[in-house]
Specification:
- This protein is an alpha+beta fold.
- The chain folds into two domains: 120 residues, Topoisomerase I, Chain A, domain 4; 101 residues, Gyrase A, domain 2.
């Protein structure tokens, strides 16, 4: 295989892989449970500085449905709130009384242009974000989003494959029929491997969405059964009281 073609193939392989990875990260942002990866894309604007969330806040996951975000400085509070709500408007937000104050590292303080004199008092509150349940409406929206992002990823893979064929066309005149077949097989393999990765991640996300929806239905059914049981108990009590009154 021509060295130039090998180079173009490697560049195409890297680009296709990047598109497959991007699809994975975009799916991770469809938040079914509270996982650290869903906050990786959150950026916080502190003055003129754009910081990652972990640079300006402590992050805890107390359970599968909640994130506890502890600002490292009082004036980080609102920028953190804005950053998370911009990335995840579906989260329910509560302000809670702070029980701990995370500390900025020396490197983070330098990046943000702060000194130890900037910290007069501990941060009084923290943010608690709750991931919403997957009801029918959210199930449909998440499913559509997963499919739409998949279509974008596959279109990008196809675009890269066509680009590879266009870039290498002028070098094929020096290749034998076997060489051309080898080149076509290689680009097909690269495309199929990345498509399979996208297929796998799409299927996994769709299963997560459906499982979360079924869990939501089961919890709602349990609530209805408890409510129905309470109503029956109440009705039984009233009937007993009426019987006693009749006997009187």
């Amino acid at each position: 295989m021509n060295k130039k073609i090998e180079l173009i193939l490697k560049e195409t392989e890297d680009t296709m892989s990047a598109h497959a990875v991007l699809y994975f990260f975009r799916l991770s942002n469809i938040c079914i449970e509270a996982k650290p990866i869903a906050l990786l894309s959150t950026t916080v604007h502190v003055g003129a500085v754009e910081a990652n969330l972990e640079n300006v806040a402590g992050i805890e996951i107390p359970n599968k449905k909640q994130y506890a975000i502890y600002p490292k400085k009082e004036n980080f509070f609102v920028p953190i709130l804005k950053g998370i709500k911009e990335e995840h408007p579906e989260f329910k937000m509560e302000v809670k009384e702070n029980e701990m104050t995370p500390v900025l590292t020396d490197e983070e303080m330098k990046m943000l242009g702060l000194t130890k004199e900037d910290f007069e008092e501990p941060v009084k509150n923290y943010l608690l974000f709750t991931v919403p349940d997957v009801d029918e409406e959210r199930r449909d929206a998440y499913t559509d989003m997963t499919e739409a992002l998949y279509d974008v990823a596959i279109a990008k893979l196809q675009e890269e494959k066509l680009s590879f064929l266009a870039k290498t066309k002028k070098y094929l005149f020096a290749e034998s029929e076997e060489g051309i077949e080898e080149i076509n097989n290689e680009i097909d393999k690269v495309y199929e491997n990345n498509k399979k990765e996208c297929d796998k991640n799409k299927e996994k996300k769709l299963n997560e969405i459906e499982e979360a929806y079924q869990l939501y239905l089961a919890e709602k059914l349990k609530e209805q059964e408890v409510a129905s049981g309470n109503e029956d108990s109440s009705a039984g009590g009233n009937s007993f009281r009426m019987d006693m009154q009749d006997e009187d």
